[in-house]
């Protein structure tokens, strides 16, 4: 997909510097993908305090011990 973006030459130079890419198109694409990735990570981090779970590790361990063949 093609998109036209209007940026100043300074903004383009900053993008190229941050991404380490000389090609303007590649630098902008990398910056946009990195932005999306970071945004998703922030969203996931924000959800981490809202999860409710029950620790069942002791029960799972007891089940695993019961299911283990007696010859091991």
Describe this structure as you would to a colleague.
- The protein has 72 residues and is mostly helical.
- Helices cover 65% and strands 0% of the residues.
- It is built from 3 helices and no strands.
- α1 (9-19) packs across α2 (24-48).
- The chain starts with 8 loop residues before the first helix and ends in a 5-residue tail after the last helix.
- The mean pLDDT is 88.
Helix-residue proportion: 55-70%
- Cα(first) to Cα(last) distance is 59 Å
Continuous helix count: 3
Could you give a short account of the major beta sheet? none
Order of helices and strands: HHH
Shape: elongated
- Residue runs with pLDDT of under 50 for 5 or more positions: none
Q: What is the average of the pLDDT values?
A: 88
Number of domains: 1
Specify the structural class: mainly alpha
How would you name the oligomeric state of the polypeptide chains in this document?
Answer: single chain
Topology, number of strands: 0
Summarize this, please?
The protein has 72 residues and is mainly α.
Give a topology summary:
Blueprint: H1 9-19, H2 24-48, H3 57-67
Keywords for this structure?
single chain, 72 residues, mainly alpha, 3 helices, 65% helix, elongated
